[in-house]
Structure to design on (336 residues):
């Protein structure tokens, strides 16, 4: 979730090497931190101790504007692609053949290290998607030039113009609208699979600006009827007032089989940080985590609240916001 937001916030801001705006040392700060921690910290040593490099984070960072072949390296390179955290990519490049992506097993066989690595680890790494040349060309266009046939977009067959919606589609749209107007009418819900059309119903509700009080009840009913326990998702709602949010959180918490611990307000553009931190924990005392990614709440606004009114944060365990994703990546700051 945070990695996706990290990538989203950097997407489209920078050019390729030598073209356009250069990237800062950490274009995706949280992602860099997470990968570095996985690489430099070992919490499961056989002797029960914890290993950490003890080095400053900046000492291990390489400018993203530098080609890896410009750096001194004895063995080769490991390339990780976490652009899509649900589908990571991996490959190795040997120092004597830096333009040919290979699997981990092949890389270790170069110097005979494969024999000392657990076979289960190698099998697990072999299952990870192997990065190919076209993947690497996006990051290193000068080193991985593709043929013109590969670079040129494929001809996309023309699609037929969309026809008139089917009777089933029209009937479903009418049924959804009637359900939103009368959520307690069993004659309507009997003919509409609310669970199957949950996202479609939410799309309709998100589009309402400002959000009408008359739709609060049905919104609570829809978002409360999920299999995800302890999590309430109000993502993408830009027309809700803080009073409506408080009512929804309170009623959803009361209707939930287990107390709500996490509230996701991502992708909203009308949030006020102070009002949110005052009203929502009061509406659901069990609330411990608020997710506010890709919203109008700026780092500066959150910083001001941390300095001027720190007690607003005392009741929460986690606030997932960019303010707290880059603190350990400031210059001359050690990780803790």
């Amino acid at each position: 979730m945070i990695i996706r937001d990290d990538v989203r916030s950097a997407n489209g801001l920078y050019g390729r090497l030598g073209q356009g705006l250069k990237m800062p040392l950490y274009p995706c700060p949280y992602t860099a931190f997470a990968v570095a921690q996985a690489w430099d910290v070992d919490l499961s040593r056989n002797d029960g101790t914890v290993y950490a490099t003890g080095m400053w984070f900046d000492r291990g960072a390489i400018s993203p504007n530098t080609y890896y072949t410009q750096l001194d390296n004895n063995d080769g390179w490991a390339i990780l692609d976490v652009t899509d955290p649900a589908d990571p990519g991996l490959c190795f490049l040997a120092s004597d053949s830096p333009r040919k992506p290979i699997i981990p097993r092949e890389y270790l066989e170069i110097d005979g290290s494969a024999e000392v690595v657990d076979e289960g680890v190698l099998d697990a790494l072999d299952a990870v998607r192997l990065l190919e040349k076209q993947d690497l060309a996006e990051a290193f266009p000068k080193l991985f030039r593709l043929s013109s046939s590969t670079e040129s977009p494929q001809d996309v067959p023309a699609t037929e113009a969309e026809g008139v919606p089917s009777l089933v589609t029209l009937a479903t749209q009418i049924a959804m609208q009637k359900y939103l107007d009368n959520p307690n009418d069993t004659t309507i819900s009997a003919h509409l699979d609310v669970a199957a059309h949950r996202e479609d119903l939410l799309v309709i509700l998100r589009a309402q600006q400002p959000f009408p009080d008359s739709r609060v009840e049905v919104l609570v009913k829809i978002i409360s009827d999920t299999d995800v326990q302890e999590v309430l998702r109000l993502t993408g709602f830009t027309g809700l007032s803080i009073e409506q949010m408080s009512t929804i959180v309170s009623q959803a918490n009361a209707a939930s089989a287990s107390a709500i611990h996490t509230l996701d307000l991502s992708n909203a553009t009308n949030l006020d940080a102070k009002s949110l931190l005052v009203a929502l924990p009061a509406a659901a005392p069990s609330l411990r985590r608020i997710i506010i990614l890709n919203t109008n709440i700026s780092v500066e606004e959150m910083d001001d609240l941390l300095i001027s009114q720190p007690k607003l944060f005392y009741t929460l365990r986690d606030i997932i916001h960019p303010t707290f994703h880059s603190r350990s990546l400031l210059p001359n700051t050690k990780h803790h």
Observations:
- Residues 150-156, 328-336 have pLDDT under 50 and may be disordered.
- The first strand starts at residue 41 and ends at 42.
- Residues 195-329 form a domain with the Leucine-rich repeat, LRR (right-handed beta-alpha superhelix) fold (CATH 3.80.10).
